[in-house]
Structures are given as structure tokens and as C-alpha cells.
């Protein structure tokens, strides 16, 4: 397992090739396939806190040194802050990134009508930065716009830009995450602005439309974080396309490990996130770091790529569970 730390673009931050994202751990519902099997019926706060800490313990023991959260991930920041404090992890020992822009409104219910509400305004940045800082303090190394898009207008808001510049001047790197079939356009706009240190985007064997823009971002000095490398469970053993399942069997790997190995092999990828909901899933995901991705796999599995509009339409129809 190769988890040697390396620089994340021009940020000066040190990260491991594999990181841990807390989207599936900080709240009772998410759009990952198979959550009923993964989590069972008990989604109480204390149960989810204990589960989060167990996965964080496993990640730390394995050498993972990047953890990614967001204000909208329920209590993910609180769970992470408690773990950092309880385990005596000093600031900087783990690079911590979080995000602003969505607010969790699910009320800790599986059947909530809405789980999160998006608002990319300067006021939301001010409020959520204060909330994040109150929890994570000096552990916060990177703060990202959550799901920025060109059409949202966030790139044209001078107050947001001013707030991000002030944050950057205070020593916290500034980034954005992207979403939707126009990810490439958003990434290029972010690079053009000169404001951002990192970009976090969806890339996987089904959704490869942003790879050219991510290569350009990397060349411009931005650190690249890859999210949704197993496509919300669609590239795991539960739902893996036949070609991926067959290649995984031949290589003695699980489909999720092979899918994440594809992301890790991209020369522009700084960190590839695992969204594991248990220590066992995390171990399976981290096995990707020992998989040798080669030209044969690239050729065999390149045909899995879907049209971006189709991919994001499918993702939008995944149930929160």
C-alpha cells in the first residue's frame, strides 16, 4: 500500500494519494447504493458518531492523511472535531478540508423531503466559515465552495471573492468542488480566475468528461481532489458493470478497488477520496493503491464511459437512503 505523503498542488499542504470523505458518515441518509445493508436500522447520532470514529481510526492507522467534510454532511465536522480532540491529533498532522454553500436540513431523518439546501452567497460563506472554524479551529487547512457551477453566479460575486481572498491571506487554502455535466466549464473558469488553490471534481470510469479540464487545472498549479470514484456505489460489487467485474476477478481485486485504481493512475490526481462507511469498506478501497493500472485495463474499461448528461441524470435519480 503506497500512502506516502506528497504536495497538493501549490497549496503547500501534504496529502496522501488516498483520502477519506465523510459524506456517507455524517448524516443518516445519502445517495450511496446499499446503505441499508451497510448501516442497518440504527442511524442514531451516537451510533453514527461511533461509526465515523471507527472509520477515522482505520484511516489513521492505514496512513491516510487527508479528510474531507462539509457543512451539509450533517454532523460530519462535529464528529471529526471530536475525534481529532479525543485522539490528540495536532493541527497539520492530518490535512482537513471542508466546504460551504449547502446547509443540512434533513432533521436527522431518512424520509426528509429535502436533505440539503444550496446557497452560494457571501452571507452563507460568512456564517458557515464561522461554524466550521468553531468546530475545527486550526485543523482547517482547505475551505471549498460546495458544488460551484458557472450558472450559479458565484464566480461573479465580488463579496464572495473578497471573503475567499481574506481566508487565503489568513493561511487557509481556497478551493471549490464541481458537479453536473458542465464540470469542465466550471473548472476552466476557476483556473482563469486565479483565486483557487484546489478543485474537487467527480471523475470515475463512468463519468470522464472533466479529465481534460482537470489536467489543465493541474498544469496551472491547482491541487486536484477526485470524488465519487465509485460512482455512489455503481462501481462496487453491488452494481459493477460486467467488464469491470470480470477485470477485477482477473486481477484479484474488488471492483471498487479497480475503479479507484483508475482514478489514482491519472497523472493530475492529487487525492482520490474513499467514501467508505465502515473500516472494512475502507480497507477494500485502500487496496486500490496496490493495483497496477496498465494500458490493457485502460483499453478494456474505457468503453464504460457514459454521456455526461446521462450520467448526471442517473445520479439525480438515486434515492436517499
TrEMBL record:
Coiled-coil portions: none
Top-rank taxon: Bacteria
Name of protein: Aldo/keto reductase
Ranges of residues in domain NADP-dependent oxidoreductase: 51-299
Gene3D superfamilies linked to this entry: NADP-dependent oxidoreductase domain
Any Pfam family matching the protein: Aldo_ket_red
Lineage, top ranks: Bacteria, Bacillati, Actinomycetota, Actinomycetes, Streptosporangiales
Amino acid at each position: 500500500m503506497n500512502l506516502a505523503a506528497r504536495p497538493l498542488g501549490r497549496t503547500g499542504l501534504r496529502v496522501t494519494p488516498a483520502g477519506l470523505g465523510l459524506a456517507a458518515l455524517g448524516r443518516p441518509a445519502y445517495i450511496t447504493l446499499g446503505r441499508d445493508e451497510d448501516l442497518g436500522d440504527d442511524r442514531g447520532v451516537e451510533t453514527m458518531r461511533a461509526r465515523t470514529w471507527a472509520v477515522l481510526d482505520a484511516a489513521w492507522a492505514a496512513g491516510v492523511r487527508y479528510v474531507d467534510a462539509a457543512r451539509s454532511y450533517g454532523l460530519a465536522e462535529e464528529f471529526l472535531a471530536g475525534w481529532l480532540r479525543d485522539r490528540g491529533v495536532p493541527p497539520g498532522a492530518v490535512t482537513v478540508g471542508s466546504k460551504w454553500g449547502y446547509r443540512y436540513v434533513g432533521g436527522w431523518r431518512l424520509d426528509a423531503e429535502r436533505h440539503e439546501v444550496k446557497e452560494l452567497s457571501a452571507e452563507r460563506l460568512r456564517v458557515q466559515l464561522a461554524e466550521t472554524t468553531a468546530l475545527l479551529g486550526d485543523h482547517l487547512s482547505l475551505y471549498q465552495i460546495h458544488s460551484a457551477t458557472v450558472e450559479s453566479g458565484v464566480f461573479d460575486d465580488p463579496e464572495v471573492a473578497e471573503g475567499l481572498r481574506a481566508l487565503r491571506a489568513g493561511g487557509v487554502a481556497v478551493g471549490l468542488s464541481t458537479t453536473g455535466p458542465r464540470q469542465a466549464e466550471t473548472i476552466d473558469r476557476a483556473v482563469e480566475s486565479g483565486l483557487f488553490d484546489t478543485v474537487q471534481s467527480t471523475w470515475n470510469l463512468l463519468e470522464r468528461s472533466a479529465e481534460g479540464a482537470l489536467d489543465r487545472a493541474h498544469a496551472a498549479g491547482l491541487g486536484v481532489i477526485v470524488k465519487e470514484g465509485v460512482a455512489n456505489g455503481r462501481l462496487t460489487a453491488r452494481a459493477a458493470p460486467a467488464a469491470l467485474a470480470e477485470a477485477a476477478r482477473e486481477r484479484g481485486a474488488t471492483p471498487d478497488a479497480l475503479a479507484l485504481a483508475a482514478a489514482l493512475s491519472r497523472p493530475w490526481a492529487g487525492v482520490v477520496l474513499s467514501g467508505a462507511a465502515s473500516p472494512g469498506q475502507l480497507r477494500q478501497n485502500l487496496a486500490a493503491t496496490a493495483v497496477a493500472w496498465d494500458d490493457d485495463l485502460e483499453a478494456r474499461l474505457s468503453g464504460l464511459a457514459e454521456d455526461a448528461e446521462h450520467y448526471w441524470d442517473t445520479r439525480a435519480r438515486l434515492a436517499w437512503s
